[in-house]
Amino acid sequence: MMVSFEGYSDGGISLQGFVQASISSPQSLSTHIEESLSCCANGFIKINANVDLTPKASLGGIGFVFQNRQVTSVRAMSELLRFNLAKIGKTLAIRYAKVYHLDELKGLPFRPVCSVKLRMPHSSEALRIVFPLLNGTDLVSCMLVCKQWRDIGEEDYFWKCLCVKHWPSICKSSTPLPRSYRELFQMFSKRCRPRLHSCPILSFDDLDFYIDIWDEEKIVFSEVIPGSFLQGGTKDLPPRVSERHKNYLNSSHYKMIIPVDPKFCIFSETVSVSILICRKDTNKMAYIFQKSKLILLYEGYPSNNLDFGSPIEEISGFLPWVYLLFIVDEDDGPVVNVFGIGLDFGRDAASEFGVLSLLQMIDWG
Amino acid sequence: MSSTKIFLKSSDDKTFEIDETAARASETLKNIIDGGCLDGVIPLPNVSSNILPKVIEYCKKHGGDNGSSKKIANGGVDKDKEILPDYDEEEDKREKVRVDELKKWEEEYMDFDQQVLYDLMLAANYLHIKGLLDLTVEKAASMIRGRTPDQIRENFNINSDFTPEEEEEMILIEDEWDDEWAFD
């Protein structure tokens, strides 16, 4: 009987080389497992095992050996793996899938095995290593090369890699996303056109905001903020906040402020932001910022008159802003400490209702 | 330096010899050696005798190497150097010569057809030789980046196996992406 299952590990974990399948069953099985393991540096693993099972037996467990030094917790690793057991003839239960760190192997009865045979055509595995390095356009070109390349390109893992590059917070959502990563990426790769949709009236409770902020290329903030939380906002300001911030916060138009705790620091002048919004009532997603630069205005730096805001972004004809609230710490040279993020839909959306009406109109894919 | 010999057996049962120091360029071999799992010959059923000498050649060049290949990845410039107080110009020059020499060696080393490229990439992946994996993956990616499906087929010597109907559908997808691409 052929058992075949596959798993993905989430992002950037390097799985390498060894698989050890162990059979532990009440019956002593005349069992022969010949694993066929193929795995890539990007974390995709696929295992085919030939198992000679007697009718009542079950596969006791499958162990994986990881060589990645960064993986310190075995438990954390096993949580990253999800298995789908393909049914072949009858259902086989996998009781556990344990992940071993190499250090743990010492003292275990089995050794790292080299009796691993690749059964997939070589090129498929090679492509799985190369594809995560490509951008969306190149990946689509690859899918048009031949059937084998197309089938591999359809694996959502590569699209997840691309999505995570653009919106790191996307994998922090506790609820599953409404669409596959491929659909999401392809949807957002199309330029937004102003389009009116008739859909239910929005409420903040229906919205999740995926917010990512980069200081140059370094990600400094990456969270999923529920709409209701954004709506509540913050009123408490640190004592040393600048006049400019006070003026902004006291201005009459409607804005949403999220407190940032712990604070993050900004060192460069190139700060960019991405915001995706997911509406849970219709399971649709849209973006309002895609790595947009926040403009840094200064008056006599390092005084407190810095100003981070992102004006120039026009989506469906309205102007949202992202505004960073910060204090400048002079103790170890001037350091910009961000304690809040403001989201502002401009003067056309001067109330909660105005903001929701605008959000209603953007291109929900 | 230890000059213990390690024996590796390819998938087609040919045995090759490699110095332990060179073998340590491979994380997989290093772990087998350190884990005390070494009894005589290490079988490598994923690596054929065509590819194994090529892998060994790379390991010999990079065994005991600590960092020159990393500098190549950074474009040959070590940024940290500039802020070091005891910055040694002579040493820097010698380092540059070493890096240039290694670059040239890598260029010659990487001159082979794409079937070798696949096999070498998989061997590097299996044996966990990061430098070699990066080198091969980057070469494959550079044969894809910015190219049309036709050019990719030519580079990898692939024939399209799509039906005429599928072809037509493909052209539509391709056009859409050309027109509408908003990222990257």
UniProtKB/TrEMBL annotation, chain A:
Pfam families: F-box-like (PF12937). Residues 125-164 form the F-box domain. This is F-box domain-containing protein. It comes from Protea cynaroides.
From TrEMBL, chain B:
It holds the Pfam family Skp1. Pathway: Protein modification; protein ubiquitination. CDD domains: BTB_POZ_SKP1. Keywords: Ubl conjugation pathway. The keyword Membrane does not apply. Residues 5-62 form the SKP1 component POZ domain. GO terms for biological process: jasmonic acid mediated signaling pathway; protein ubiquitination; ubiquitin-dependent protein catabolic process. Transmembrane segments: none annotated. Residues 130-170 form the SKP1 component dimerisation domain. Signal peptide: none annotated. InterPro entries: SKP1, SKP1-like, SKP1-like_dim_sf, SKP1/BTB/POZ_sf, Skp1_comp_dimer, Skp1_comp_POZ. Residues 69-88 are annotated as: Disordered. Coiled coil: none annotated. Part of a SCF (SKP1-cullin-F-box) protein ligase complex. Belongs to the SKP1 family. Involved in ubiquitination and subsequent proteasomal degradation of target proteins. Together with CUL1, RBX1 and a F-box protein, it forms a SCF E3 ubiquitin ligase complex. The functional specificity of this complex depends on the type of F-box protein. In the SCF complex, it serves as an adapter that links the F-box protein to CUL1. This is SKP1-like protein.
